[in-house]
Amino acid sequence: MFTVVIVGRPNAGKSTLFNRMIKSDDKIKAITDKLPGVTRDINYGVAKWEDKTFTVVDTGGFFPEQKAENIIQKQMLEQIEIAISEADLIIHLLDGKEGLVPDDIETARWLRQTEKEILWVVNKIDNPSKLSRIYEFYSIGTEQLIPISALTGYGFEELIEKIIERLPLTQSLKSEEELPKIAIVGRPNVGKSTIINALLGKKRMIVSPLPGTTRDAIDAVCTYYGKKYLLIDTAGIKRLSYYKREISQQVYVEKLSYFKALRSIERADIAVLVVDATEGIVNQDQKIAGIVAEQKKGLIILINKWDLIPQDERDRKAKIFAEEIRRKLWFVDYAPYLTVSATNKTRLTKIFPIIDQILEEYAKRVSTSELNKLFNQKLKDVVLSSGGKELKFYYITQVDVEPPTFVVFVNDKSAVKQHHIKFIEKLLRETFNFEFSPISIKVKQRK
């Protein structure tokens, strides 16, 4: 798909423009804030304009290489280079409110060296009365500037028309929304971004020993034996009490990241929960698994950093983890788990056959005749006593998929307890091979 990459200084309005271009409430939008450097990773989205579709890439703030002061800033530059290498068109976004600065000229010089086509766009021009702001930008070395306001939409249609003019006459309209969506979730600094980078074979996500490096929910397409998956890297989910401490701009941005991580789980088909092998299953891991379970999403547990466990301790540790998962994550007992090393890329690709199996089960539909054949064999004429009430099961039907959802009809809904539901779930799993997928069972009282 035709790819447009947005590049510019920190706080020039790149994420605001990105959000306007993908313009859909059901997409996870890039975090925007007045704090410079909020966007650290590259963020992918699909823009649709009438019958045209193209990919938009939001990048972290660009600054000359000699000004990169730490590992994160250096990796931000590496990621921008990767994004630009994939670009068909670059938007150099300039800050019309702050005016032309030396870094803009240096960025323009660097972009020209890529030999990619570039649109020079001056942002924060809210109305025609502010058009005079753009004139100084001509000294950047271009004959055409496009004034816009990413915030209000002024000049936005003209920018889109310039992009549409450059689209190829024919292109695939297959949207990334059609791909299986896999959200990588977990506490801060457990290795989520490293796992995605290893799977992609590219440094798409910034990796650092600093907790909280990923602030946004970042999408990337991964191909495994010809099949594509949309991987979603999310910010580390901290304890909710963390976000209730003294309000500051930093906490505000991190709280947005927290809710974006939750929304990433909502739109995913499967969540991959990454836990730290050196720490075991902790309370926050349980809470994140609980969020996934409540939303009835597929779940895979990756025990990462297995390379840090001494070789002679691994068998014992594996047994400890199996027991911890059984005891602490009992409510997702259908979820498979793997020990992996993102750093050494050990056993990571084993998740793809599991993902495929979950997706198949997640979309599976069982006929009413097959379901009631099972009921007739196991529950016909069975009358149970529950709290002094007589409970009788009549029949069962499947009403939905993703997740597979079943409705059981009984004589007295109030008499149905959790252990009855678990018994029926066990029957369904064993009989119809729902090994790893979550399933939902609802109860209705027959009148």
TrEMBL record:
Quaternary organization: Associates with the 50S ribosomal subunit.
EngA-type G domain boundaries: 2-171, 180-363
Keyword annotations for this protein?
Answer: GTP-binding, Hydrolase, Nucleotide-binding, Repeat, Ribosome biogenesis
Encoding gene per record: der
Q: Name one GO molecular function term.
A: GTP binding
GO BP, one example? ribosome biogenesis
Does the record bear Magnesium in its keywords? no
Q: What does this protein do?
A: GTPase that plays an essential role in the late steps of ribosome biogenesis.
Name of protein: GTPase Der
Q: Does the keyword Repeat apply?
A: yes
Residue positions annotated to bind GTP 1 are D58, T59, G60, G61, F62, N123, K124, I125, D126
Domain of life here? Bacteria
Family, similarity comment: Belongs to the TRAFAC class TrmE-Era-EngA-EngB-Septin-like GTPase superfamily. EngA (Der) GTPase family.
Residues the record lists as binding GTP 2: 186-193, 233-237, 304-307
